Amino acid sequence: METLLTLHHINIIVHVISGSLALLTAFVILVINKGRTVHRLLGKAFLVLMCITVVTGLIGVIVFGRNTFLLVITILSGYMAFSGYRAVKYKANKPRFLDIIIALLAIGSVAYFLYFFKSIGMIWSPVIIYSTVGYLIMMVIYDLARYLFSTQLYARLWMHEHILKMISAFSGLLSAFVGTVFSNYQPYSQFLPSILGTLIAIGFMITYQTGKKRTLLID
Predict the structure, then answer these.
(1) Residues 9-25 pLDDT 10s
(2) CA distances (Å), 199 to each of 100, 111, 121, 154, in order?
(3) How far apart are CA 51 and CA 44, in angstroms?
(4) Which of 119, 177, 182, 188 matches a 20 to 30 Å C-alpha distance to 35?
(5) Directed axis angle between helix 37-62 and helix 158-181, to 10°?
(6) DSSP codes of every residue in 149-207
(7) Closest CA to 70 of 16, 22, 144, 139
(8) Could you tell me the CA-to-CA distances from 196 to 70, 73, 88, 170, 202 in Å, in that order?
């Protein structure tokens, strides 16, 4: 029993450290010049840190019976980071086995959460719970539906998709962190980071689109 408790504490420490480093990495990515080598390296580091955060989060829920809703918001952030990285890596909507499997696993995690919803209890605000679950489902549906898009259409979408997903991963992680640390200020401490992330994503997408049109005009 004591050994299990020690492992539980170690898992929490690794989860907190990896999540905190992922947040710090995301902050740096947001402020540096995009598309350069440093940006790509930090993006990969962010993805690795997110993987560690997701795995330790899964261990905390499945092995140690921690708050299951944290599983959903962790899965959301992890899935957004993975899918956002894949979007910029391939820049095409050709179906890939790994992408489909990860999407189905994400949906499976939501199904698990909803099935045991009553036994979990409303530890977090219902607004946060329903919006998080709904957003994850919406993004997975988009990821499966995008295979039906034409190559020409997706060529205009993949960068916007990358921006939205990576910032969604960041804001989801930030929401979990702030909501946990400032639990007395829920639900504001939970949904305000998400609103901030949405505004940042919109700003970057507008900036990208404007710069792209300016380049076309110059050419």
Answers:
(1) 888 889 889 989 999 99
(2) 29, 29, 31, 23
(3) 11
(4) 177
(5) 50
(6) S-HHHHHTTHHHHHHHHHHHHHHHHHHHHHHHHTGGGTTHHHHHHHHHHHHHHHHHHHH
(7) 16
(8) 20, 16, 23, 10, 10
